[in-house]
Amino acid sequence: MRVLVTGGNGQLGSALVDLLSARAADVALGIDLPDIDIAAPDSVREVFAQFAPDVVINCAAWTAVDAAEEHEADALKVNGEGPRVLAEACKVAGAWLVQISTDYVFAGDANTPYAEDARPDPKTAYGRTKLAGEIAVQEVLPGAHYLVRTAWLYGLQGNNFVKTMLGLESVRDNVSVVDDQRGQPTYAGDLAKQILLLLDARPPAGTFHATNSGATTWFELTRAIFENIGADPQRVLATDSASFVRPAPRPAYSVLGQDKWESVGLTPMREWRAALTAAFADGITAP
């Protein structure tokens, strides 16, 4: 299997390339800006001509959620047009496309987990642009795609919430964290394994929610981070979203249902606390 990973320098892309490179049966190419511009057809065609992928995993995205509110057209170029360009190239090449998406395509106001077939209703520019990418992939590759939605992602590479909290622990006596947003912390290493599980099994095209199981709040997650490094979790203080107003409203509820995995005979991802402990064993550190 020849796998092209766009956004290959990011926390998920790098985890995928590492896993694929360790598998003798696979050939992987992780690629990122400036070597590919997924929204530029000529750039994509050149990479496809050189590498000839069987599968493309698109981890490239505009992920600056707040900046997207003022620069939605720029975000749409990456998150909406980019997946369409990749899908068109995959269609010509006869390749499958795995499009990574997000909980932000939902309104974030539910009180039970969002099913894979729940109606999207994004409330932010970031969510709207990611939904545009989903729609483009479904339109161009109806029988040769997987939409993989995830949430609260952290990994060994790049910047993320877990690393930020580790940095704050070392310089502050106490850390205040919101306790009124609920979701699923997801370790990029686990998500990468789940994507490869999906590609190996190759069920029919469709949408899968891929997060570590269970649910928590940012406050509870931070306490778990402190516990993993032997710091006093009582130093983490609970606050609410009103204390951290941002241009893009954060979803109050981002829990994604996992029923699709069992319906195709695959096991959902492990519980978030076990994954967090594994991330520390793998060497996650402050930025």
TrEMBL record:
Membrane-spanning intervals of the chain: none
Signal peptide (UniProt feature, chain positions): none
GO-annotated cellular components: cytosol
PANTHER family attached to this UniProt entry: DTDP-4-DEHYDRORHAMNOSE REDUCTASE, METHIONINE ADENOSYLTRANSFERASE 2 SUBUNIT BETA
BP GO terms, sorted: dTDP-rhamnose biosynthetic process
GO molecular function, one term: dTDP-4-dehydrorhamnose reductase activity
Ranges of residues in domain RmlD-like substrate binding: 1-281
Lineage of origin: unclassified sequences, metagenomes, ecological metagenomes
Protein's name in the database: Unannotated protein
